[in-house]
Amino acid sequence: MEETLSLQDLFKTIKKRATLIFLVTIFAITLAGVYSYLIMTPIYQSSTQLLVNQQKTEQAQFNTQDIQTNLQLINTYKVIIKSPAILSEVIEKLDLDQTADTLNSNISINNEQNSQVVVIKVEHPNPALAAEIANTTAEVFQEKVKIYMKVDNVNILSPAKKSESPIKPTPNLNIAIAAVVGLMIGIGIAFLLEFLDTTIKTEQDVEEILSLPIIGLVSPITDREMPSNTTIIQRRRRKR
């Protein structure tokens, strides 16, 4: 016989296992909170902005072609900024205890679409050091680009400043995600237990399994109502 699960049965199962679902959800939230606040290391971000301009002669004026040339240079500059030649000097100036590859993973270079502004972003557990790395990287690149590209077209628009609040972890977001995941896991466990539980507990279970109506019930007998062995023997003697 094919069994179907109605919406009423779904809510019935959730109500029946509400305590289990609640405990699983609370456990997931607690786990996410402990991991976010006590285990994960806060990461801070600082950024500095560079303006890329084509070198201007005495009589030359900027036009659309110049801007397009600058935009093409930006892609080259992104590679140069994250190259070992730049990052190794940054490490040497700041006396950092890390390799160029490790520092490279902490730095990201971005620029807005059709913009000549390049943004150097640095992520680090130390907020002050993150700002220093960003500023030093910008300064070293500004010096080295004159040697590598034979141009002087990079200006620092705004230096990086120490960040007061970390960008990650985000405890509130982690806890919200954990609550949703915990709720889904709790409901899943509840339905799994309900599916595996094949015991018959009520008359409704009998009707559902046998598809037959209940015509009579045996009332439970308490210990007081249960006759003792002595009473049974006396009744037998009377009948004799």
UniProtKB/TrEMBL annotation:
Belongs to the CpsC/CapA family. It comes from Sporosarcina saromensis. Its main location: membrane. Pfam families: GNVR, Wzz. It is a multi-pass membrane protein. Keywords: Cell membrane, Membrane, Transmembrane, Transmembrane helix. Residues 3-94 form the Polysaccharide chain length determinant N-terminal domain. This is Wzz/FepE/Etk N-terminal domain-containing protein. Residues 142-193 form the Tyrosine-protein kinase G-rich domain. The chain crosses the membrane at residues 20-40, 173-193. It is found in: Cell membrane.
